[in-house]
Specification:
The chain is of the alpha/beta class and about 230 residues long. It has eleven helices and six strands. It has two domains: about 130 residues, Rossmann fold (3-Layer(aba) Sandwich), CATH 3.40.50; about 70 residues, Arc Repressor Mutant, subunit A (Orthogonal Bundle), CATH 1.10.10.10. It comes from Streptomyces platensis.
Length: about 230
């Protein structure tokens, strides 16, 4: 995060925008430019350049197209998960096939947004992942939840067995992660300090062997931990 100078401090989320289409980058930059708390600090036109720019600028969020020259978005996400774990990766693409969704979440992405979505959805998604949350386009979220709901009872049993090794508080936090809450929102809900929530989330991911909150959220759904809204 950065702060403005010459006036009241304004926390800004620093974003790296990666897409091989100049017009698409210009459009996304224009959308993000309407949010005073978001700043595009660099752009890239291919996967290798994206990794180089990320290592140079260390952005809070990296918006990636899936299909890019030299190294695709899935490869970039995997490299950034290893080299810059503090940088949240969001896939921004026209492709919503199941294999792309699964590949994105498996590679360490914290979100999956469609270019055809509402511009407000893009801004909200960037803010969510910057705060430690996750984001999925509504149509993608419906497909993920539908897939989970249509799974065998064995999936639920296996998920419940996995979360059984967590403490009661960790299961409570995991359920709220599954509901899409950020660390700050979870802290407010559970009357905890935000740093404590962050520590719980890190412990949950490490114990379950997950790279990001989206994977944890899916397990929370499977295990029946997500509270009713």
């Amino acid at each position: 995060m950065t702060e403005s100078r010459g006036g009241p401090p304004v926390s800004r989320t620093r974003v790296l925008l990666a897409d091989d289409e100049p017009l698409m980058r210009a459009g996304v930059r224009a959308i993000l430019g309407t949010a005073p708390d978001i700043e595009v600090v660099a752009e890239a036109a291919d996967g290798r350049e994206t990794v180089d720019q990320a290592l140079r600028h260390r952005p809070d969020v990296c918006l990636l197209d899936i299909r890019m020259p030299r190294l695709d978005g899935l490869g970039v996400a995997a490299e950034l998960a290893r080299a810059l774990p503090a940088t949240a990766v969001v896939m921004l693409t026209t492709f919503s096939e199941d294999e792309y969704i699964a590949g994105s979440l498996g590679s360490g992405a914290a979100g999956f947004l469609l270019k055809s979505g509402d511009p407000r959805e893009l801004i909200a998604g960037v803010r969510a992942v910057a705060e430690g949350g996750s984001c999925l386009s509504p149509s993608v979220a419906r497909r993920v939840i539908s897939h989970l709901g249509g799974g065998q009872l064995g999936r639920g049993a296996a998920a419940r067995a996995r979360v059984a090794e967590l403490t009661g508080r960790e299961r409570e936090v995991l359920g709220l992660v599954g509901a899409g809450l950020s660390n700050a929102e979870i802290a407010q809900r559970l009357f905890l300090v935000e740093g404590t929530v962050k520590a719980h989330v890190s412990a949950i991911l490490a114990r379950l062997g997950f790279r990001n909150r989206v994977q944890a959220a899916i397990l929370a759904y499977e295990a029946g931990l997500v509270p009713a809204s």
